[in-house]
Amino acid sequence: MRIASWNVNSIRARLPHLVDWLGAAHPDVVCIQETKVEDALFPEEALADAGYRAVFFGQKSYNGMAILARMQLAIDDVVKNLEGDDDESQKRLLACTVDGVRIINVYVPNGQTVGAPAFAFKLAWLARLRDHLAATHTPSEPLLLCGDFNIAPEAIDVHDPKRWEGKVLFHPDERAALARLIDWGLVDSFRRHHPETSDAFTWWDYRTGAYKRNRGLRIDHILLTESLAARSKDVRIDLTPRELERPSDHAPILVELAD
DNA sequence: ATGGTTGTTGGACAA
Fold this sequence. Notes:
By secondary structure, the chain is α+β, with helices and mostly antiparallel strands. It is built from 7 helices and 14 strands. The chain binds one DNA strand through loops.
């Protein structure tokens, strides 16, 4: 089974890219972040025409989640947001089960600037996610936690770690929060398959021509429990859609799981 | 050099 994660930065603006990419990459499941659309306007039919069923959980303008699965696959046990969130809460988590794999798709708060209220919100949200995992799941089950974490784990994941050190997306407190999440019982699947690979990024700022110079960060992750990591054959970042005109600022990451 | 671009919207705001 091939499972992908992609922050599309508006599913309506990116619909042609997404549909083309589904046809080219043939994922079985796609976890999407930043749909930026309320549920009534979600492009469900266009995705069905492309051969994918969808569950979605969105809001106007900001955030918003979706999970797509090939029509032949069932999507079960859908969960929207964390325990304690209400209708007013930012839409940042969507979970389901496909073919026996528990899939948790997250859009971790960006944090804006270190020290800002949004940064405290980011750290608190990550702690709540850790609590949710511990309360609802066990590390022994086949579970995949993926999405836009807005955190680069290590210096090797940043184009210029000296310049980024202590900045939002690469601050010690965020990296510790991500490490706490992983310590629950997860594996960074990309790093397991590519332990030495540098300059492998999933996000490049729209400004300053960052993509052309490969000035990026690896902030989108697919984390697996050990039982699922044992089935993982490869993980790759697909740069193809980032090359197009008016792309998302993120590239998709994909994991290949043995049946 | 605190710049620059994109998306949602119709002026900021978030990223």
